[in-house]
Design a protein that fits this description.
This protein has helices spanning 2-6, 56-71, 78-123, and strands at 11-17, 30-40, 43-53. The protein is of the alpha+beta class and 124 residues long. It is flat, with a radius of gyration of 22 Å. The N and C termini lie far apart (44 Å). 6% of the residues are buried.
Length: 124
């Protein structure tokens, strides 16, 4: 989100935080509405686009949930809704755990690199 906000080649119209404020279905994502310039034969035209930022786990969940909405014509049975909510929470917890693991691995790599650098300096 911060990388998108730093760009100056489009205008951010609206932001919707479904991560901190998840939808009742369990969906979590961050949406940004943008006025994005497109070059046409007649000149530049700004089009409204929606950018959805979500993890791979939540994207998988959203893809399944979206297809179920069509299968059930928008009326997903209550037991499946509950299972989707639980699956969404599991995906969110998985994302959090993987993020923690990634940070720990990066920290370990940093420590190893520093030790290797120190060892090289001592050998000189």
């Amino acid at each position: 989100m911060e990388l998108i906000r730093k760009r100056k080649d489009f205008e951010i119209v609206e932001e919707r935080d479904y991560i901190d404020h998840k939808k009742p279905s369990g969906y979590r994502s961050y949406h940004m509405l943008l006025n994005y310039p497109v070059q046409m034969i007649t000149g530049e035209k700004k089009i409204l686009v929606e950018l959805q930022i979500r993890t791979m786990a939540m994207n998988f969940w959203a893809t399944i949930e979206h297809s179920l909405r069509y299968k059930y014509s928008g009326e997903i049975p209550e037991n499946i809704k509950m299972r989707l909510q639980r699956a969404s929470e599991a995906a969110f917890l998985l994302d959090e755990e993987m993020s923690i693991i990634r940070d720990e691995v990066r920290e370990a790599q940093k420590i190893i690199s520093e030790k290797q650098e120190q060892s090289r300096k001592e050998q000189l």
